[in-house]
Amino acid sequence: MTNTISCIEKADVILVTGSNTTENHPVLSSYIKRAVTQRGTKLIVIDPRRIKLADFAEYWLRQNLGSDVAWINGMMNVIISEDLYDKEFVANRTEGFEDLKKTVEKYTPEYTQKITGIPVDQLSEAARLYAKAKVSSICYCMGITQHIGGTDNVKSLANLAMLCGHMGKDGSGVNPLRGQNNVQGACDLGGLPNVYTGYQPVADLAVAKRMEEAWGVSGLSTKPGLTVTKMIPKAYEGELKSLYIMGENPMVSDPDLNHAEKSFANLDFLVVQDIFLTETAKLADVVLPSKCFAEKEGTFSNTERRVQRVRKAVEPPGDAKDDWKIMCDISTRMGYAMSYENSSQIMDEIASVTPSYAGINYERIDYEGIHWPCPNTEHPGTPVLHREQFTRGNGLFHAIEYIEPAEQVDNDYPMYLTTGRVLYHYHTGTMTMKSAGLNERSPACFIEISQEDAEKYALNDGAQATVASRRGDIQARVKISDKAVAGTIFIPFHFVEAAANKLTNAALDPISGIAEVKVCAVKLSSAA
After folding, report:
1. On the CB side of 506, how many CA atoms lie within 13 Å of its CA?
2. Can you list the alpha helix ranges (DSSP code H) found in 293-358?
3. What is the mean pLDDT of residues 79-83?
4. Of 162, 224, 322, 350, whose Cβ has the fewest other Cβ atoms within 10 Å?
């Protein structure tokens, strides 16, 4: 997030897109609802489903799946043509405006409606509301990123924020809501194939040399590695022979699960390190039991870039170990000795090799976390990014054209499917499905469908139905809901017994490598 969670309440307008915030981020959603109900903040929700947050919105715009670049360009067309953009901000703090202006010229509200399905007047009014506000905040999540054009979607939202000068101020910004508790920290500390800690490029020879000196090694590769979604096809092809998985359950969460299962079966050696015996761990040659968050010391970096202490509360079961101790043992046995006295010592090493974390240590975050970047121990941290300038100096507008989703509906597969989460379960249910209370509230998978489509396919509420895509099929009960809109069904992906990802498309964003799990073509029928 460019801004903090508390900043959300300072916004005059909040635009939420690609995020079912009340179910995926219930705590953060309370800030949004409080801003609306107590401060008079205006809320714009842009989502293919009528999610709960739409009840609080000034405008709910229902876009066709995968059409996000088009509606964002359409909003910018209105803002530029009506002279509502922040000329001073654009002139002094950005570049590439003329290219952007030229690209969005054709995305008139009328043209945009043909692509997105958003009515002309709704798009125009929402654009004016966002642009005219003193401070506006954008919040988005995986409904924006999990597309073949996910990177384009994110860049387009940044274009919109810069165009209106809604960056670098309290209550403004572009704020991705992270999908899991330490996703931000994992990315910050090199859990991506093309960067070291602090997003220092692997391909940069100077960075590699600094890391070699810090770790006492030589010959570090400057070739970026593979993303998860590229590893699985490599395993299927026989090029990737072994895989080490930590705290992830791809046998439920990966797209096109039938293909993924064949890919895992083709590995020579699979190691899984986790807190429970997940569906993926059941396939492993070796399972390494690790401690959960409440059984160990460490840090999490949350969605607002705040680095926070995590403290041991209970004893771990059996022989479960700290994740870092397991990795150190393996590294030592493979020939590179790794040894730390405690997690605090690891934090000190992180600070020494990571410019954005350089001023963070356990003593400083003993009672309250610090937002990176924090370049030295005298620095208070940076709750709001880009106040004076962007990381590259001037912000760069990207002129982006809309591209269609990888898969379209047709006569054989006439409906669209989108996937997501429900309030009571988390990701693949590794932890939440071990809670009787949560299982009682959400016991099984369902197919959310509109009343119109239920009548069209002669399906009653609660009846079993079959959903099939070009990759597989599942059965689940029908749930007729006013959240759904005609032509699109929604299925939560938590449930292994009816795994939605048996249906989803593994087509990838060419830049991020993220799969397009938010849109694919399916057909629906009554179960036998």
Report:
1. 20
2. 323-333, 343-353
3. 98
4. 224
pLDDT at 180: 80
pLDDT of 247 over the 80 cut: yes
Task: Give the model's confidence band at 419: pLDDT under 50 very low, under 70 low, under 90 confident, else very high.
Answer: very high
Confirm whether 328 is domain-assigned: no
- What's the pLDDT tens digit per position in 170-190? 999 999 998 788 899 999 999
For 300-318, letters b (16+ CB in 10 Å) and e give: bbbbbbbbebbeeeeebee
Predicted confidence at residue 308, as pLDDT, reads 96
| Alpha-helix runs per DSSP H in 334-380 | 343-353
Q: 211-216: long-range contacts (C-beta < 8 A, 24 or more apart)?
A: 211/353, 214/349, 214/352, 214/353
**How many Å apart are CA 224 and CA 199, to the nearest integer?**
12
Q: How far apart are CA 136 and CA 17, in angstroms?
A: 14
Residue burial 258-292, b: 16+ Cβ < 10 Å; e: rest: ebbbebbebbeebbbbbbeebbbbebbeebbbbbb
Query: Which of 141, 160, 177 represents a domain boundary (last residue)?
Result: 177
Predicted confidence (pLDDT) at residue 528 exceeds the cutoff of 80? no
At which residue do the structure tokens 């469908």 appear?
Answer: 449
DSSP state letters, 245-283: EES--HHHHSSSHHHHHHHHHT-SEEEEEESS--TTGGG
The Cα–Cα gap between 18 and 143 comes to 4
- Which domain does 507 fall in, by range? 415-526
* Euclidean distance between CA atoms 259 and 264, whole angstroms: 9
Single-letter code of the amino acid located at 248: E
Six-digit token pair at 382?
């940076």
Work out the burial of residue 118: count CB atoms within 10 Å of its CB; fewer than 13 is exposed, 13-18 middle, 19 or more buried.
Answer: buried
What is the pTM for the complete model shown?
Answer: 0.94
Instruction: Output DSSP code: residue 393.
Output: B
Cα–Cα dist 2/138, whole Å: 10
CA dist., res. 524 & res. 505, Å (int)? 17
pLDDT over threshold 90, residue 432: no
Nearest by Cα to 88 from 12, 167, 173 = 167
- 267-291: per-residue pLDDT in tens? 999 999 999 999 999 999 999 999 9
H or E element, residue 448? strand 446-449
pLDDT band at 294 (very low <50, low <70, confident <90, very high): very high
Q: Per-residue pLDDT averaged across 304-323, rounded?
A: 96
Return the residue matching tokens 């009840």: 55
Whether the Cβ atoms of residue 364 and residue 344 lie closer than 8 Å to each other: no
Residue 323 has which token pair? Answer: 């994740």
Alpha-carbon gap, residue 419 to 406, rounded angstroms: 16
For residue 187, tell me if it sits in a domain.
no
Q: How many domains does the chain have?
A: 2
